[in-house]
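FORM 7B: Structural annotation worksheet

SECTION A. Query
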Amino acid sequence: MHDMHESGGAVIDRRLEPAGLTHMLGPYGQGRRRVLGFSLFLLAGAGAALVAFPHLGTVFIAASTGMLLGWALTTAGALARSESRYRALVHGLPGTAVLVFDHDLITESAAGQALTGAGYDAENLVGCHVSTMFAKPSASRLEEACEAALAGEERSVDALLACEGSHELCVRLSALRGESGQIVGAMLIAQDVHDRIERERAFGEAQERFRRAFDDAPIGMAVIDVEGGFLEVNQALCAITGRPAEELCATTRMAITHPDDVAADVEAMRAMLAGAISCHVVEKRYIRPDGETVWVAVNVTVVRDPDGRALNFLIQVQDVTDRRRFESELRHLADHDPLTGLFNRRRFEQELERQVTEVARYGPRGALLVLDLDHFKYVNDALGHHAGDELILSVAALLQNRLRVSDIVARLGGDEFAVLLPTATPDEAEHVAGELLRAVREDAGLDGASRRAGVTTSIGVAAFRGTEMTGEELLIEADLAMYDAKEAGRDRFVVVTTEAQRPDRIKARVSWLERIRRRSTRIAWCSTPSRSATCARARSASTSCSSGCSTTTTS
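SECTION B. Predicted structure
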């Protein structure tokens, strides 16, 4: 009826359960003693013994008490060693705890770092309710999961330990079954996920900070894939490009880039993917849907995974259209006359020196013309400075219309203009001078209901003849020729001849210019309040005042 077999004279029954021993033994059960995890029953009057292993759910019966005791001790030792290895294994799992409990939710065994790390003594938990170490409301959720596990279900639940430090656990519960398949208890495996949750929380906070900085940034930002397609864009970039986010995310960076800038853009992205450069900073142009060009400053950075593989690009875009326009206007103002828009003296002298360099390298060619309007002072005095400005504008427009695109026209100051003819021969230069004289005489002037003012000009012409002259010296020669034209009666041009290009004449002109500069400096120095009264008393043509400066009277 029972599965019995003999072992060394002992008859062993492997089918009996410990719960039925009390009823089975009845008055024969003389006593029971707990020895190394098993229960020993002595049968009165029979000289026999019975041993029960509750953890195995098995009972062994032997005819000889001595033999049974020896066998039981050997088996119990093996079980103790096995349990020790099991506990060592569980305790070696980082942040893990394992509990075994019965149908009454009473803990039968407990071990693991998750318990000791939280300050619990695993031995003291044995015999306690399984929910003892969990905080409310985690305890109630855990009890429901334990009951479900004892009913054969597998459950997972998050719970907090009832201790300081907020140890958060991920708990999995499953049933334990005996040899015949019946549920004899349940196992609880808890993993300390506090560090993981903190990392996830920190990561989530970092993601949120990036999201807020990304979405609310005053400059355009975007995440693009390694092929250049937009993955994410913010509202600032939508405003810069004139496109909604949905449209941008359906296109590529190259598709909205000015065609002249695409090649450099692609080359830079390839260099970043290859690791040759870590970022790329450039000013380029985007094309809006209406065809308008917008200048942007772009900073591109490649994002890589821990293995160094490129994941995507992060770009920052700033609209610099206004800045570039202002810079262009400033450059224009630095090189151009604010009234006429022609080159100013500074820029013209640069172009003149460039022409001198070309002549020194390739031989003499080109000519320089200096023009000065005749009796311009009377126009200002009679009609006012506004009328004088109109006349200057009229002459400037006439010069631009009558000259070639390759010719350079400048306003040197006041009513004085200069023209550089880079490739003209001496004869061509004289022809141009004659045409300009006629054009100014016939076409330049002021027209109005209450006023009419005509104007003429005097022109000095100096050809580049290969002599070792600087641009400034050539400008002086042309200027001297222009004054010769005025002295000869105005409304004419004078050509600088080889005989006229004498160094002493140039030196005399430079000497007079230097005297004027020194005189201006002395006048400015003497005009201070502490010296002006004293200097005003100087009478003679060359008199030293009491303040130590010299003054010269002129007529």
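SECTION C. Observations
Confidence is low (pLDDT under 50) at residues 1-38, 42-46, 524-555. The chain has four domains: 4-81, 93-197, 217-324, 336-523.

SECTION D. Sign-off
Analyst initials: ____
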